[in-house]
Amino acid sequence: xxxxxxxxxxxxxxxxxxxxxxxxxxxxxxxxxxxxxxxxxxxxxxxxxxxxxxxxxxxxxxxxxxxxxxxxxxxxxxxxxxxxxxxxxxxxxxxxxxxxxxxxxxxxxxxxxxxxxxxxxxxxxxxxxxxxxxxxxxxxxxxxxxxxxxxxxxxxxxxxxxxxxxxxxxxxxxxxxxxxxxxxxx
Length: 186
Fold this sequence. Notes:
Shape: globular
Number of helices: 10
Number of domains: 1
CATH class: Mainly Alpha
């Protein structure tokens, strides 16, 4: 019998074909595991939420008014934990008009968004490697609104809602992504 992560990977690959989106999902999984460790939460559960949070993005053709709602249906049908389903649904407030209220929700929204800023930061380095990125560079880029303009800084700052200052949050996320840099091609 396959474990939950194997089930999640197989399900993800059924719905997500974009190599970059798969890498984003893996980065989000790593980041969520790192945040879970920091907060003393369930590493496996949080990792699965990171892995599966964008499972419906291609299905809904990037329509944020539907993104998360289709994921909710897919994950319920597949038998995933209700807390994972709720966090996945809540990472995109646009589709349902509800506000994130749980630590898990804020962590997923902030963490998956931070992966975009970290990736963009790595890509401006000559070697395009996560190993070259410093926490100070990430926090500096946070203040540069024109840099990776699509990355929502307010969402990243939700890390403070879960008791992690931005510098520490950037460090956790960066170190988590460095741990799988080979899979990310960074």
